[in-house]
Amino acid sequence: MREARLPLRRDAVNSESIEWLLGRHGKVVVVLLDRADSPFWREESRRNELFLALLLTRPSVELDRAVTSTDRLRIYSLTHPAAAAAPPLP
């Protein structure tokens, strides 16, 4: 069975809504692109850091890679404790 994917903007969710999604789906993947090519994007990157710092569930790093000289792609997964302890479905 294919996992459901619902892309959400960082500014459309907060730590409480991430926790709600974790409770409902068991896993949440956070994808962030940090850019440093203008003041606007540097501020967005700072907001990405703040967003991560405010998460109640600590994310696991899946990918952290500089994709250009100004762009950094980061992918994190968050797993609900009950989902992590549950055996996989057949």
Could you explain how this protein is built, in words?
By secondary structure, this protein is α+β, with helices and mostly antiparallel strands. It has one domain (11-81). 36% of the residues lie in helices and 28% in strands. It has a 3-stranded antiparallel β-sheet with strand order 1-3-2. The longest helix has 16 residues, at 39-54.
Summarize the structure.
This protein has helices spanning 15-25, 39-54, 81-85, and strands at residues 27-35, 60-66, 71-79. By secondary structure, it is of the alpha+beta class.
Number of E-type strands: 3
Distance between the termini: 10 Å
**Widest beta sheet: strand line-up:** 1-3-2
Question: Roughly what percent helix?
Answer: 25-40%
* Helix and strand sequence: HEHEEH
Radius of gyration: 15 Å
Provide a count of the helices. 3
Structural class: alpha+beta
Shape: globular
Quick one: biggest sheet?
Answer: 3 strands, antiparallel
List the main descriptive attributes of the protein structure presented here.
single chain, 90 residues, alpha+beta, three-stranded antiparallel β-sheet, 3 helices, globular
Task: Please give the structural blueprint.
Layout lengths: L14 H11 L1 E9 L3 H16 L5 E7 L4 E9 L1 H5 L5
Antiparallel strand pairs: 1-3, 2-3
